[in-house]
Amino acid sequence: MTTPAGPEVSDGPYDVNFCFPVRELENSKLKLTPFIPSTHADLLFQGCADHPELFQYLPFGPYDSASDLTKGLIEGRIGTNLSMILYAIIDKTRSPHPTSASLSHAPSQVNFAGVLGYLNSCPIHLKTEIGFLIVLPPFQRTHVTTNAVGLLLLYALNIPSISDSVPFPGLGLRRVQWQTNELNAKSIRAAERMGLKMEGILRWDRVLPYGKGKPTDGIEPRANDLKPGMGGRHTAILSVCWDDWENGGREEVLRMMERQS
After folding, report:
1. Domain count of the chain?
2. Residue ranges making up the domain that contains 244
3. Nearest by Cα to 15 from 80, 83, 112
4. d(CA 57, CA 48)
5. DSSP assignment, residue 198?
6. Among 27, 52, 108, 114, which has the highest number of CB atoms less than 10 A from its own CB?
7. What is the pTM (predicted TM-score) of this model?
8. Which GO terms describe its molecular function (predicted)?
9. Residue 103: pLDDT above 50?
10. In degrees rounded to 5, what are phi and psi of residue 38?
């Protein structure tokens, strides 16, 4: 059973600055909780330290330390932008304290599965984007990605009021989008599996530095380019909208979440 929207986070140790109400989201398999640098930054850094390939298609990272990650990603990119929030993914099926129910979901390297969040969110136009997705290697090809993305979709697209068809409230947004490097076939498949539809390719959408494992399609900038030595990225953009959601999209996402072991 999926019951994703918990009480609104309004105080406590959470350092959030987001344009929509912030809630912890969870079902029987996962818990998404707002990313707290003092609690989660070292877990994320340690989980990524030996796997720089996790940042291959992301426009940020890799990082040299937990403090570098906090400064660059949280303070420099997310915390200052009302359209963004980052969630820590806690795998509830892996308990570091199996004899203590009260501690069973405390974050540790045993059950900290990665991060994801919303970005490019806009209350005026009722839309958001799912991004910042990093699933650590021990949790890949499990239930984690499906359930984490599913929880964000449920919260974004469900209407705010409860009804027979919507037993838990959401934000009532009209559009959720997903952007990724056009070379990132794995990300595109993940989005399409969750019901997002390919809308097209934004050519030369991003400036990317050569090196640091960032693929740039092998396309060289023009002569005398304003950013010499930096390649480009063509971006695939996908979306799921309220009409997709209310015409079978929600039910398919719930079925996928239920059947993932």
Report:
1. 1
2. 25-94+108-258
3. 80
4. 14
5. E
6. 114
7. 0.91
8. protein N-terminal-serine acetyltransferase activity; protein-N-terminal-alanine acetyltransferase activity
9. no
10. -65, -25
